[in-house]
């Protein structure tokens, strides 16, 4: 295989080794902190919000009251907090680059809550659970899957029966297989819009995959929950668009039904199936890697630099400082 030429590809291909390393990281303090909480808030922005949503689902399996909320909402439209709550703050860059994440940390700390930051190595937040070194590409990949693996380990330790250590240790190998055979070669870029959709945890993966496609390849892409797509969002789609259906899961056959309806409407449909024998929340890790590789491939085909996503007026420092503590 040729040497990677972009920071994005290097990050994508680093995932099996990084995930394997994180299966052995000591989680004693994080588990103790969340064990004592009556309710857990998982707070994040963008990709980190997707991690928060899957993390909340994992904690639900452990019988925990867990709520995923965007960082901005946690700060600007706050829900009532209880002194027995805990906050898991997910942010690869919880400083100036992510103003609302920093503000969320400040709010939780002022309220006297137990706070578990999950952030990059050397991220600067006290008592943080660290993931990986700072990513050099704007299109974050390994930091996302690293957080998911750590949240799965925490949920397993708190009682999620399907997230046992042996099952979690199978994830890095599933990611290696996804890298070797991603299954995205037949998915072609549409003339207009690429719609990614799935059910349950795969709907989060659909939104994360669409975000990677937008960032890396500058391709108009949207990610949907299957039911939401059915209830009106599919109406304007035409054969100029394309769809990607994600599995697992599909407990009621809705994903398959939507794909069939799209095909009868003349809309091309591709499938991405994760074949690893993993519970649906964990299967999202290698499934996400497949979508990362799709984004990388389309970035190459479209002659886009996948390492630079935020630029021009969108990179204005004043814009990114909105919401910072004391701002």
With strands numbered from the N-terminus, the spatial order across the biggest sheet is 2-1-3-4-5
| CATH superfamily heading of the largest domain | Glucose-6-phosphate isomerase like protein, domain 1
Question: How many helices does DSSP assign?
Answer: 14
| Name given to the CATH architecture of the largest domain | 3-Layer(aba) Sandwich
Give the N-to-C terminal Cα separation: 48 Å
Taken together, the total number of domains comes to 2
Q: Pick out the low-confidence regions.
A: none
Derived structural class: alpha/beta
The succession of helices and strands, N to C, reads: HHHEHEHEHEEHHHEHEHEHEHH
What is the C-alpha radius of gyration, as a whole number of Å?
19 Å
> How many DSSP E strands?
9
Describe this structure in words.
The protein is α/β, with parallel strands linked by helices and 327 residues long. It has two domains: 7-175, Glucose-6-phosphate isomerase like protein, domain 1 (Rossmann fold, 3-Layer(aba) Sandwich), CATH 3.40.50.10490; 183-301, Glucose-6-phosphate isomerase like protein, domain 1 (Rossmann fold), CATH 3.40.50.10490. 46% of the residues lie in helices and 14% in strands. Strands 2-1-3-4-5 form a five-stranded parallel beta sheet, sandwiched between helices. Helix 4 (47-61) links the parallel strand 1 (39-44) and strand 2. The longest helix is centred in the C-terminal third of the chain and has 22 residues, at 280-301.
């Amino acid at each position: 295989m040729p040497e990677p030429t972009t920071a994005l590809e290097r990050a994508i291909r680093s995932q099996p080794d990084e995930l394997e390393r994180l299966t052995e990281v000591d989680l004693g303090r994080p588990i103790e902190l969340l064990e004592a909480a009556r309710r857990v808030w998982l707070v994040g922005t963008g990709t980190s919000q997707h991690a928060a949503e899957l993390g909340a689902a994992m904690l639900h399996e452990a019988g925990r009251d867990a709520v995923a909320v965007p960082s901005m909402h946690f700060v600007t439209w706050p829900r009532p907090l209880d002194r027995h709550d805990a906050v898991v703050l997910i942010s690869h860059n919880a400083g100036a680059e992510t103003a609302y994440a920093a503000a969320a940390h400040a709010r939780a700390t002022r309220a006297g809550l137990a706070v578990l930051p999950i952030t990059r190595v050397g991220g600067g937040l006290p008592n943080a659970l660290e993931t990986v070194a700072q990513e050099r590409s704007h299109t974050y990949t390994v930091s996302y899957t690293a957080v998911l693996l750590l949240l799965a380990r925490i949920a397993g330790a708190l009682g999620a029966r399907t997230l046992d250590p042996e099952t979690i240790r199978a994830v890095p190998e599933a990611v290696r297989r996804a890298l070797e055979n991603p299954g995205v070669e037949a998915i072609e870029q549409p003339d207009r819009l690429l719609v990614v959709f799935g059910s349950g945890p795969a709907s989060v993966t659909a939104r994360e995959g669409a975000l990677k496609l937008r960032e890396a390849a500058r391709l108009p892409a949207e990610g949907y929950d299957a039911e939401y797509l059915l209830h009106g969002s599919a109406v304007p789609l035409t054969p100029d668009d394309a769809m990607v259906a994600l599995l697992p899961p599909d407990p009621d056959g809705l994903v398959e039904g939507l794909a069939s309806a799209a095909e009868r409407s003349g809309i091309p449909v591709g499938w991405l199936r994760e074949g690893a024998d993993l519970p649906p929340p964990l299967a999202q890790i290698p499934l996400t890697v497949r979508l990362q590789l799709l984004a990388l491939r389309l970035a190459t085909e479209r002659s886009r630099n996948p390492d630079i996503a935020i630029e021009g007026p969108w990179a204005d420092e004043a814009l990114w400082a909105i919401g910072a503590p004391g701002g």
